[in-house]
């Protein structure tokens, strides 16, 4: 009897262990990069630079992608796998204002024509775009010279309905429990890679770090 109990206990422990391994595998992101293994210089070939002088830089032992402070245009870079829906994208972004001039920056999902979560310090706002169309905006007080966390997800709500939801907070603060800005759309979500965007209108560099792509809920 004791032998049977020990055998049963071993089987239960093995089952719990296997369940934990499978859960960990399921929770693994589709893409993740903190650039600590990247060489300083041009961005790796895995990225598709749409425009701009993006490069790997290092400061204080931390590596990141940096967009130069000039020219004063809007630039983007694509990364990770192509996904259509039920996908989440996140990144940390650093910028500084100069006088009354401020950068604009964001992250995107679904390629160039997909959704983009954007911080617009000059407007004191967070904006949610689809392509070039502004879908929603909410107030936000950005802090110059501090890293900002951005998280965006696009999910299918039901047949004929998709939702894009974003949240933004200052690095070091508690992540908001609810989505900061959201929109529901009857137009089908577009398929494409995730993205980062920057407009260095202050004439100062914009830095991007901790890029991550996962399924919604990860």
Q: How would you explain this protein's 3D organization?
A:
12% of the residues lie in helices and 49% in strands. With 218 residues, it is mainly β. The protein has a single domain, classed as Jelly Rolls (Sandwich), CATH 2.60.120.560.
Would you tell me the structural class of the helices and strands?
Answer: mainly beta
Which consecutive residue ranges, at least 5 long each, have pLDDT under 50? 14-26
Average pLDDT, rounded to a whole number, is 90
Indicate the percent of residues in helices: 10-25%
Distance between the termini: 43 Å
Shape annotation: globular
**Strand-and-helix sequence, N→C?**
HEEEEEEEEEEEEEEEE
* Largest sheet composition: 9 strands, antiparallel
Q: Count of DSSP helices?
A: 1
Question: Might you state the CATH topology name?
Answer: Jelly Rolls
- Say how many strands there are: 16
- What is the name of the CATH class? Mainly Beta
What Rg do the Cα atoms give?
20 Å
- Number of separate domains: 1
What's the architecture, going by CATH?
Answer: Sandwich
CATH superfamily: Exo-inulinase, domain 1
Could you tell me the strand content as a percent range? Answer: over 45%
Spell out the key features of this protein.
218 residues; mainly beta; Jelly Rolls; nine-stranded antiparallel β-sheet; seven-stranded antiparallel β-sheet; 16 strands; globular
SSE map:
Elements: H1 2-27, E1 31-33, E2 41-42, E3 48-51, E4 55-59, E5 62-67, E6 75-83, E7 87-94, E8 104-109, E9 115-120, E10 125-130, E11 133-139, E12 147-158, E13 161-170, E14 181-185, E15 192-199, E16 206-215
Antiparallel strand pairs: 1-16, 2-4, 3-6, 4-5, 5-16, 6-15, 7-12, 7-16, 8-9, 8-15, 9-10, 10-11, 12-13, 13-14
């Amino acid at each position: 009897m004791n032998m049977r109990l020990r055998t049963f206990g071993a089987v239960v422990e093995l089952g719990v262990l296997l369940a934990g391994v499978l859960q960990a595998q399921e929770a693994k992101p589709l893409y993740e990069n903190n650039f600590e293994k990247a060489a300083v210089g041009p961005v790796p070939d895995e990225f598709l630079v749409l425009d701009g002088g993006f490069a790997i830089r290092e400061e204080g032992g931390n590596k990141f992608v940096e967009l130069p402070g000039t020219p004063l245009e809007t630039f983007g870079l694509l990364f990770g796998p192509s996904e259509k829906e039920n996908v989440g994208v996140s990144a940390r972004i650093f910028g500084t204002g100069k006088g009354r001039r401020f950068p604009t920056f964001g992250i995107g999902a679904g390629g160039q024509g997909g959704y983009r979560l954007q911080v617009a310090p000059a407007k004191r706002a967070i904006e949610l775009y689809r392509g070039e169309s502004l879908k929603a905006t909410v107030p936000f007080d950005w802090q110059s010279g501090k890293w900002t966390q951005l998280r965006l997800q696009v999910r299918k709500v039901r047949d004929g309905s998709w939702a894009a939801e974003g949240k933004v907070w200052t690095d070091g603060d508690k992540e908001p429990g609810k989505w900061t800005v959201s929109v529901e759309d009857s137009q089908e979500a577009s398929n494409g890679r995730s993205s980062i965007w920057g407009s260095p209108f202050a004439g100062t560099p914009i830095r991007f770090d901790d890029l991550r792509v996962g399924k919604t809920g990860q």
